């Protein structure tokens, strides 16, 4: 184990369920250590510590302010409701704490800009909690998509997600244009709709759009090298709960210059998937578990190149080959490790924060806002 003096000391603001996973990730990452937990009451902080068997060395605070005033906290993970992000992320940055912020990042891009500006002006690192970006399989997938010799012209991209049911499909045309169809959904138990913050307008007003849709938007932008679409249009088939929160919606994007069309579906009302398929003129690959891999230590996708029908179209000339990608740590621990590496570089070398992660989050937030705007104005087209 690394010397504690060289590790980045984390504090966690809030005891949300996802905080349990990140606690474990902080423990597994070799360059980080959990220093403190805070909640709105010391009783809740104690309950969280007991439930997760945290060591006695972890400090417990009954308010978020107390944790931010701890001079030994280097960085904070913020899994609070989206409506509270701007207040606590900005205050954390002003206290010189580096910010790992749960997604969706804010209620609108104006709030996110306030967070990013606070991080920039105070010289602290920002990153959102989208874990799948940090899995080495994601890098391999992008390499395959980007290799014209292996794939030729990209004809089809299909993404779907098992835990949050994602599917994106692209159909190529002779001019090289693409069409994307992407969905992200899951069907929770009945108590979710009554108690979960993602169904409350005053806590997480985006609902399924902010939770599951954030992954759809992020994956589509990732495949498009983060170029924003020209237009965004939400479908009138959008379903709301009694609080006016989005439970299900379908959205279309259009990139005018490329002639590319993308659609995605996100929902709390459908079965879970995480499929991803990318088809090109020369090859294709397929992965079933984009957002949360089936296993922690490795993940795979199937690959084929040069496949064709044979024997009067009664068979194929080859079968898919499986590409196995091993990872040293679970993807959430790899996220913490990368975040901690950046923080340590700022502390030790006095270099500036890496703005890449803020730029990625901002792109997703801009598109998310455009989708919400289209819904709010009667499902009309919104130009970005």
Could you describe the 3D structure shown?
With 384 residues, the chain is of the alpha/beta class. It has two domains: 4-131 and 333-354, Rossmann fold; 133-329 and 365-376, 2-Layer Sandwich (Dihydrodipicolinate Reductase, domain 2). The chain is built from eleven helices and 20 strands. The strands form four sheets. Strands 8, 9, 10, 11, 12, 13 and 20 form a seven-stranded mixed beta sheet that branches. Strands 3-2-1-4-5-6 form a six-stranded parallel beta sheet, with helices on both faces. Strand 14 and strand 15 (283-287) form a beta hairpin. Helix 1 (17-28) packs across helix 10, helix 4 runs parallel beside helix 5 (109-121) and helix 9 packs across helix 11 (356-376). The radius of gyration is 21 Å and the shape is globular. It starts with 7 loop residues before the first strand and ends with a strand.
Strand and helix map with partners:
Blueprint: E1 8-13, H1 17-28, E2 32-38, H2 42-51, E3 59-61, H3 64-68, E4 75-78, H4 85-94, E5 98-101, H5 109-121, E6 126-128, H6 136-146, H7 148-151, E7 154-161, E8 167-170, E9 179-185, H8 190-195, H9 208-223, E10 231-234, E11 239-240, E12 246-255, E13 260-267, E14 273-280, E15 283-287, E16 298-305, E17 309-310, E18 315-316, E19 321-326, H10 331-349, H11 356-376, E20 382-383
Parallel strand pairs: 1-2, 1-4, 2-3, 4-5, 5-6, 9-13
Antiparallel strand pairs: 7-14, 8-9, 10-12, 10-20, 11-12, 12-13, 14-15, 15-16, 16-19, 17-18
Helix pairs in contact: 1-10, 4-5, 5-11, 9-11
Family: Belongs to the Gfo/Idh/MocA family.
GO molecular function, one term: nucleotide binding
Domain GFO/IDH/MocA-like oxidoreductase: 187-285
